[in-house]
Amino acid sequence: MSDDDLYLHDAYRAEFESQVIASEGPSVVLGTTAFYPSGGGQPNDTGVLTDPRGRAFHVVDVAKGPAGVVHRLDTDGPPVGTAVRGRIDWDRRFAHMRHHTALHILSGAVYRRFGSTITGGQIYTDRARMDFSLPEFSREIADQLVEGINDVVRRNLPVRVRFVAREELGRDPSLVRVAAHLVPDVETIRLIDIEGFDVQADGGTHVRSTGEVGAARLLGIENKGARHKRMTLALSAP
User: Fold this and answer.
1) Domain hosting residue 74, numbered range
2) Cα–Cα distance between 218 and 234 in angstroms, integer?
């Protein structure tokens, strides 16, 4: 986790200035970036980098690499040392933020009711799904969980980012809702805190308050195995 990863600290930052520190063909690494790389079920941001001459390089994929966050462009990138201005596709980012926060609320509701953890999930711009380790599941339970999400949305609770030492996870195991091997091997853990409702380790982008999520509706449920149940949600405009 790095202070150079702006998306970890301010999900609303849509523009930034930086410098190319590595460049190979269409792939570049920047000194600092607001572009979110694919991970944790959340797709990467897209957008554009502009150099001082006004040339635009469209960012089509973003992923973490050994040298940092790698931005794959639609053409060969600018050379090392080039100053660039980055601008993310805000509509795509905000859709991911809303759906990610909705899944966080759902995870909190399931954990409160069943003590169950997450086994998988995926976010899209128009829907999101989450898998849980649950022995029993039904449409009635799913509808109740969706109503729980919408209650938290109506309460418009603040959503805050904070950072703690990794040792905190040992003192409070409830902060981790995924398999232990999926937690990054870093000294500082990022937490998403929905005030008065739920706190858990999370590396994705989120809205500032639950009211920005919008009302959730259930698209469907699936039985993915003996203890793996899936819910798929869609959101109305906030």
Assistant:
1) 14-88
2) 7
Show the CA angle centred on residue 45, arms to residues 41 and 46, nearest 5°: 140
**Lowest mean pLDDT, pick from 42-46, 104-108, 173-177:** 173-177
Which amino acid is located at 155 in the chain? R
Cα distances from 19 to residues 50, 58, 114, 160, in angstroms, run 11, 16, 48, 29
**Residues 36-48: what's their mean pLDDT?**
96
Return d(Cα 165, Cα 90) in angstroms, integer: 31
Mean of all residue pLDDT scores within the chain: 93
Q: Are residues 77 and 111 in the same domain?
A: no
Verify that 83 and 105 share a domain, yes or no.
no
Token pair belonging to 230? 């899936």
Do 35 and 49 contact (CB within 8 A), yes or no?
Answer: no
Which of the pair, 170 or 230, is modelled with greater confidence?
A: 230
Q: What is the pTM of this model?
A: 0.95
Tokens encoding 14:
């849509």
SS3 state of residue 192: strand
Neighbours of 190 (CB within 10 A): 18
Residues 123 and 229 grouped into a single domain: yes
Q: How many CB atoms lie within 10 A of CB 59?
A: 24
Which SS3 state, helix, strand or coil, does residue 110 take? helix
160 domain-assigned: yes
